[in-house]
Amino acid sequence: MLLKNLRPANDYDRFATETLEPWDMLFVARIRQLAREIPPGALADIGTATAVVPVRLAADPALADWSFIGVDLDPAMLEEGVPRIEALGLSSRIELKVGDALALPFEDGALAMAVSRATLHHLPDKALSLKEMFRVLRPGGIALVHDMRRDAPQALLDRFTRMRAEANYPPTHLEEKVTLDEARALVAEAGVDAFSTVFSPNAGLGAMGFEILLKKPVCA
Ligand SMILES: C[S@@+](CC[C@H](N)C(=O)[O-])C[C@H]1O[C@@H](n2cnc3c(N)ncnc32)[C@H](O)[C@@H]1O
C-alpha cells in the first residue's frame, strides 16, 4: 500500500536516514529532555515509518529503562525498518505495530509518552489524532507532536527544498501542512487545550515546524 503523497518505503528510508538526521536529532533531544521529567514507561512513536526515531531513542543509555513501540498504518514501512532493528540488537526494546493514528492500538492510559513527527499533516482527522494521543497517556504522561508549518519562513522552506533535491527526493507538499494558528485550533478542537503548549522556535531548523506538547494531569 502506498499512502497519498508518500514515497515507497525503501526510498523514504533512504531519505530519512541520509537527509533527515538534523531534524531527527532535534526531535530526539526534545524527547530525551521531556522523558527526564517523568518515570520511565512505554513510549509510542505514531507514524513511525521505518522506525528511525525509536532506533535512535533505544540506543540512548539515558533511556535504558524505557520501552518503545513504533506504530504505522503502512506495514511496508515497518517491514523496511526490521533489518536495522535486528542488526542493532534492538528487537527486545522496540516493538512494531500496524495501527491507525485515529484509533490507536492501546488501552486508555497505557503509555508514558506518545510522540509523532511529520505525520499529523497526513491525517484526515488531525484533532482526533491528538485526542487519541491524549487518551492513551497515563496520568502524568506526555505527548509530543512535531510537524512542518505551512507558514514557515520562506528561506527555511527553500533550504528544505534544496536538501530534498540534493537527495534526489521530490519537493514537499506544502499545501498539506498546517499553520501555527491552525495547530492551535486543532488542539482546541480536540478539547485538550487546557493541557497544551503550541509553539514554534523563531530561529534555526526548528523554525520550519511547530511543536504541540500535551501533559496529562496526574489527577485526570
Ligand atoms: C512523512 S512519514 C514520517 C515518518 C517519521 N515519523 C519521520 O519523522 O521520519 C509519515 C508516516 O505516517 C504514516 N501514516 C500516515 N497515515 C497514518 C495513520 N492514519 N496512522 C498511522 N500512520 C500513518 C505513513 O505511513 C508514514 O510512514
Report on the architecture of this protein.
InterPro entries: Methyltransf_25 (IPR041698), SAM-dependent_MTases_sf (IPR029063). The longest helix has 15 residues, at 21-35. Helix 1 packs across helix 4 and helix 2 (21-35) packs across helix 3 (52-58). Strand 2, helix 4 (75-87) and strand 3 (94-98) form a beta-alpha-beta unit. The chain has a single domain (9-215), classed as Vaccinia Virus protein VP39 (Rossmann fold, 3-Layer(aba) Sandwich). 38% of the residues are buried. The chain contains seven helices and seven strands. With 220 residues, the protein is α/β, with parallel strands linked by helices. The mean pLDDT is 92. Strands 3-2-1-4-5-7-6 form a seven-stranded mixed sheet, with helices on both faces. The structure holds S-adenosylmethionine (SAM). The site of S-adenosylmethionine has 20 residues, from loops.
Which helices and strands appear, and what pairs or packs with what?
Elements: H1 9-18, H2 21-35, E1 42-46, H3 52-58, E2 67-72, H4 75-87, E3 94-98, E4 111-117, H5 126-135, E5 137-148, H6 154-166, H7 180-189, E6 196-199, E7 209-215
Parallel strand pairs: 1-2, 1-4, 2-3, 4-5
Antiparallel strand pairs: 5-7, 6-7
Helix pairs in contact: 1-4, 2-3
Task: Report the major sheet.
Answer: 7 strands, mixed
Number of domains: 1
Strand content: 15-25%
Heteromolecules bound? S-adenosylmethionine
User: Could you say what the CATH architecture is?
Assistant: 3-Layer(aba) Sandwich
Domain Methyltransferase: 45-141
Protein name: Class I SAM-dependent methyltransferase
GO molecular function: methyltransferase activity
Keywords: Methyltransferase, Transferase
